[in-house]
Amino acid sequence: MQVLIPESAPFTDEQRAWLNGFVAGLLGMERALAVASLPIEKSVSTGEAFPWHDPTLALEERMKLAQDRPIALQMMAAMGQLDCGQCGYLCKTYSEAIAGGTETDLGKCVPGGRATAKKLKELVAQAGALSTAPGAYKAERAVVERGYGRDAPVRVRLGSSMPLSGPDAEKETRHVVIDLAGSGLVYEPGDCLGIWPRNNPDEVELLLAILKAKGSEAVTLADGAVVSAREALSSECDLRVPREVLYKLLARESKNEADRSRLSKLAEDDAQAESLGVHDVLDVLVEFSSARPRIGDFVAALGRVQPRLYSIASSRRKHKDEAHLTVGVLRYEMNDRAYQGVGSSFVAEYLKPGRAVSVFVQRAHGFRLPADPSAPVIMVGPGTGIAPFRAFLQEREAAGASGRNWLFFGNQRRASDFLYCTDLEDFAEKRVLSRMDLAFSRDHTSKVYVQHKMLEAAEELWRWLDNGAYFYVCGDAKRMAGDVNLALHQIAVTRGGMDSAAATRYLVELARAGRYQRDVY
Fold first, then answer.
1. Which of 4, 28, 123, 30 has its CA nearest to residue 69?
2. pTM of the predicted model, to two decimals?
3. If we measure between CA atoms, which residue out of 51, 42, 53, 59 comes closest to residue 123?
């Protein structure tokens, strides 16, 4: 059960348990209402509202909101809704490019993952083609300045990659330093660094061995470039998500009738893939051993690898030629096999200090420190969401900003997961950080999260907002961002004396004024 009543509240264990259940039931209904208080994206040119442009909404909810809209806007609703720029577009312009036929790759929305790609495929089929009526959409990607977009990366070097979490942490987090010296790249607090990763070399060699390929064979990529099979699998191909075209290729190549039938069904609908133990491309080859295509055809059937974005955790005022990243390393085991995140394992294990890596700066969309250095700032950043706020604090300190700074940070255990503990305690000692509220969920019998700490400090938090504070959130979009928004909504009701509708309007206006900003993923 989600814990909503903190241990410090004046109730017995039995009373607290009953209240947790009762309030959780109420919040299940209230959450859907409170989501309306999140910022609603509007088109600059038309002023049209896009109510689905909210990453805390489930895909099904977003599609329902867009169901009567033109096909391009339905495609927009299928995106991850982050406007992160990882795809080379914004959510709206990516959807328009697909609808207009200028973009045929449906797998570029990394935050949306498999679910977005599948929904886009359905919508493309529904539209009848990858283009609508001639001239309906003319979305074209703007010319990208070198170093400031996925299509124009620059080569820099890894400075270091060091453990940030303790040895007993359930999830490893690393502090990664990228050496920007000589690159000409500049960034501001709030920006992200995009990294073009390379795949696990052991996995690449295993795929080549399974297909009885040498790796030196020349293969042709989608853009017409000719490279070796090993290089294609290492740096160009997505080895995570099997595509429809791969299932169709393997079905044609399979020497087993049962395998052909199963592969054909997966090509039509891959919803059953994970139940078969198929999580990535290697799993497909292992599961269907009767299908062994030629290496060139295999490479052509794979999707393209996508860049990974990481919030920059440093200020150039303090680290002129460096960009610091806070990377949670994804590792898990399933079906007697170990799996790794592509980007996180690349910078944590396979990229060695001094080696080159292709990167680009992705400028923030509406995630910036206030222009007024005297404005107070409230930051909510659990886990790796702390990254941009470390940059904020370094910037505010170096600039001599007089505004107060308040941080809410949470993670599993203080002993192993208090990321940047020394830095934060130093900021607190120097009064750069005016207040720091911590929530370590696994250190107590009842889990306490950042939203609970917000509610405990409701009176003071409301006083800060009433005095012009800017409110920032960074981290998980699926749960945390919605819970934080709901807590903020409750504070507006209980401390601001508003009813629910007025609190919703208040948060919308706070966002429109640039005083409620989110970097969620």
1. 123
2. 0.85
3. 59
